[in-house]
Structures are given as C-alpha cells and as structure tokens.
Specification:
With about 475 residues, this protein is α/β, with parallel strands linked by helices. It has 17 helices and 12 strands. The strands form 4 sheets. A 6-stranded mixed β-sheet has the order 3-4-2-1-5-6, sandwiched between helices. A two-stranded antiparallel ribbon has the order 7-8. Strands 9-10 form a two-stranded antiparallel sheet.
C-alpha cells in the first residue's frame, strides 16, 4: 500500500496552488476590463465636451465596484472555476446588480450622467469580462486534458459506483476531477486489487481522514450508499473540517442537476426537493418561438448557399439533392426529416448487407466509420454537418427544435426501453449535447445518457450554450461519419 500511495502522490498534481493563481488572474483581468470599459466612457464624455466635474471619481468608484460586486455574488468562488454556465451567470448577475445600484443612486441624487455608465459602461465591462472568462476557461480545459490543474479526490462508496464515477471523470476531464484513492465498505476492502486504473483502494469508511492526509487530497466525494447515513456524514465533515478538505456528497439521482434541485430544511432535516422537468408551459412556448424565428432567419440567410450545395450534389452523383426519411418526434409521432443526400441512391437496399461490417454500432444504432455508400461530396458534407442544414425546414414547421435529442429512426424506437423513451418527451434537435460531446464517436449508452440529461435539465440558457459549442464541434469535424 505504501508503494502504491507513493506512486499516486508522485504522479499527482505538481502545482497545488493553481486555483489561487487562477482566481488572482481572474481578479486582475476583471479590474482591467473595468478600467477599459468605464474609463473609456469617461474619456468619450470628456472628448465630447459633456464631462461633469464628478466624472473621474464616479468612474473610479464604478471601476472599483466591479470586482467587488463579482466577489459578493461568488464570482471568485473556487467551486465555479472552469464551469462556464455558473461563471457566466455570476458575471451577468454582477452587471445587473451594479447597474441597478448606479441607477438607483443616480435617481436619488438626481445625477443624470450615470445613464452613460448604466447603458454603455457596465454592459461593455460585462461583455469584456465574459470574453476574458471564456478564454481563461478554454485554456484551463486544455491544461486539464493534459493532466494539469486537477483536483485530487478521494472517493468513498461501493466499488461499482466508484468505477462509474471514475469513468465519468475520465470522459469529461474538463471538470478537473482526478481520483487519487478510494475507500470502500469493509466487506469489499479485502477483496479488491491494491490499485485499479491508476488509483489505489486504501481502506474502508473508517480510514477516510487518514487516506485524505496520506494522498494529499483536497476533496472527498461520498457516493450514495446505505452505510453512510446522516450521522456518519456529519462526523466525516467534522473530521475534514480542520484540513479545509471539501466534502462532496453525490445523490442517488442520475443526470438531475441545476435549478431543479433545492435543499429545504424540515424538522431539522435537510430534504432534497426535486422539481419535475419543465417539458410543458410558457417556457416551452418561448423555446418554440425562439426556434422558429431563429430557423427562419437562418434559412433565409443560407438559402443561396443551400441552393449551391443542392446543385453540387446533383452534378456530383445521380439522384435527387434532398433525402427524405421517416423519423420519430415528440410523443412518438413520426415526421419526414429533410437532409442533403450524402449517399448513393441505392443506400437503403445495401444497408442489410453492410450490417455485418457494423464496427461502430451496438444493435440499436447502425454506424459504419468507412461507409462505402457515402459519396465523396457526402463525406465532406457530413464532416461539417452541412447535410443537416435542410432540417431548418423541420424546425420552421415545428417538427424539430434547434437543440434537443437526436431524431431517432422508427426501428430504433421499437427497441427502446421505458427509460430511453423519455427522449421522446421533447422535440428532437438539429444539435444537442450528443453533438458537442463527440457525435458519432459516442457509444449508444453515452448518447442516451446525454439525451436524458438534456430532457431532465432543459433550459433556454442551456440551449444557447449548446448552440455556441456546436460551432467548434462542427468546424472541428470530429466524430462525423
């Protein structure tokens, strides 16, 4: 055990102070953004000859207030490092608070010059900060993929759950978690190998504080298991308190997160309240309007390019430019999806003979990395998802959404279990978590997991983030075949 532990410590993070430097860099860049935006407004007003005597001290006050407001709303919280949605939300929240304070102060003091800062200075400051945070986050993700800037985690739970969590951390390394040791129930501790996939099993539930110290961990993740009840967790929290080790408790709920979960104290108990997924109501109406308006605008703008693609398809291979296929939409209703044709006209008849060569499918999805039915032009169209541009027509018709689960074939739906059928609670999408997370390189289980995560945690903000990430996924061309 000593040798295994020594190897884990030696191969771990060589720079444990990276989070402090990241936060200091964020504070410094936020100050620079405030200076550029707010003092820029001051200089413009001076240049236009409309500056007020209190202009410079007012600008300095707002510039100083910007990082302070971010700090008050948790914009420099270590837990939010690298989490784009939370980081961006904090910046926007801070901008709203600062603008409100300046506007109210100006109203009370009858100072008209504050309008320039509320309407221009603070919004520009927020946009600059969002851009900087985006760049910092991307750089952090690259370092994490290279094995740097990771948080050392001791996982406590049953072995099957530990392995599942390890698989998720390995697939999504940008979250910055690395398992350095595991503690399992006493009846499993003597039955497991000393080390699995780079991290050792160093004891049972009674040894967690000692394992944390020995492995130099900064976080403990407790998975759902009956042996660790409320009293045991409370004692563990006390034991970790002196070292400042973060305690993370995973619920038994899978793929449910964000605003759907709230902690409500009742009779001295911390009860986890889980909201039902929002698949009906006014927010879905807003989503539908957003989808149709954006799809209509995109369709009109891309129409000349799409006509050129249609002509190229007709010239390059015999057959129509458009390919029509039955897909299953919301509630199990079938509709006709439109795509640019990327295969030969006899593709469907050849599909049966090619199933024996399906090296990328799994009995539900038919995927062939080097499909001989795909035309040379079709390979290029698929690489950059240009064959799916015609699905904008389906979005305008209300059959699809811009963001949602992958539109399945009827024969795929026939093989769905009850859990997988939850994908049909919402409209299928042109893009989704599956596309920004690997596209066709994903296994069937991973695709289902991502689609169910989307259904359970949908929000308009999540849609916008997925649309933003789709650009890099498409232009990267990874996983498209």
């Amino acid at each position: 055990m000593g040798v295994a532990l020594e190897e884990v410590v030696r191969s771990g993070i060589s720079d444990p102070g990276w989070s402090r430097r990241y936060i200091r860099a964020a504070v410094g860049m936020d100050i620079i953004c405030g200076v550029v935006a707010i003092q820029g407004v001051v200089l413009v007003r001076i240049a236009l000859g409309i500056a007020h005597p209190v202009e410079i001290p007012l600008g300095l006050a707002i510039t100083t207030a910007w990082p302070l407001t971010l700090a008050l709303v948790g914009g420099y919280d270590r837990r939010n490092i690298g989490d784009g949605a939370d980081e961006y939300r904090k910046v926007i929240h801070s901008a709203g608070i600062l603008a409100s304070v300046v506007a109210i102060t100006a109203y009370v003091t009858q100072t008209s010059i504050a309008r320039s800062y509320v309407m221009a200075g603070i919004p520009i400051c927020a946009l600059l900060t969002l851009g900087v945070r985006y760049g910092m986050r991307k750089r952090l993700h690259r370092r994490r993929r290279a094995g740097e800037c990771l948080r050392r985690v001791v996982v406590v739970g049953h072995w099957t759950s530990v392995l599942e969590l390890h698989g998720q951390f390995s697939r999504e390394r940008y979250h910055g978690m690395r398992i350095v040791a595991a503690c399992v129930p006493p009846d499993q501790a003597g039955q497991l190998p000393a080390q699995v996939d780079g991290f050792p099993v160093l004891g049972d539930f009674k040894n967690v504080p000692e394992v944390v110290v020995a492995s130099q961990a900064d976080s403990v993740a407790v998975l759902a298991c009956p042996e660790l009840d409320g009293h045991a967790l409370r004692r563990l929290a006390w034991q970790l308190e002196d070292r400042g080790t973060e305690l993370l408790v995973a619920t038994a709920l899978m793929e449910v997160a964000g605003p759907r979960i709230n902690i409500r104290p009742v009779a001295g108990l911390a009860l986890l309240h889980v909201e039902h997924p929002d698949i009906k109501g006014i927010r879905q109406v807003i989503k539908s309007v957003f989808d149709r308006v954006m799809a209509t605008v995109a369709l009109l703008m891309l129409l000349p390019f799409m006509l050129a693609l249609a002509a190229a398809i007709r010239i390059s291979s015999p057959g129509p430019a458009l390919f029509r296929q039955a897909r299953v939409g919301k509630g199990g209703e079938e509709f006709t999806v439109y795509k640019f044709r990327t295969m030969t006209i006899d593709a469907e008849s050849r599909k049966i003979t090619l199933r024996t060569f399906d090296d990328d499918g799994n009995g539900v999805l038919f995927k062939l990395r080097n499909d001989p039915r795909v035309t040379p032009l079709g390979t290029w169209l698929r690489r950059y998802s240009l064959d799916e541009l015609t699905q904008l027509i389906n979005v305008v018709k209300g059959e699809m959404s811009l963001v949602g689960p992958r539109p399945p074939l009827p024969e795929e739906v026939a093989q769905y279990g009850d859990d997988v059928r939850r994908r049909l609670l919402v409209k299928p999408g042109m893009t989704g978590l599956w596309q920004v997370s690997g596209r066709s390189d994903l296994t069937w289980e991973e695709s289902v997991r991502l689609d169910l995560r989307y259904v359970e945690n949908w929000s308009l903000t999540l849609d916008v983030l997925i649309l933003w990430k789709t650009w890099s996924a498409v232009f990267g061309g990874r996983g498209a075949y």
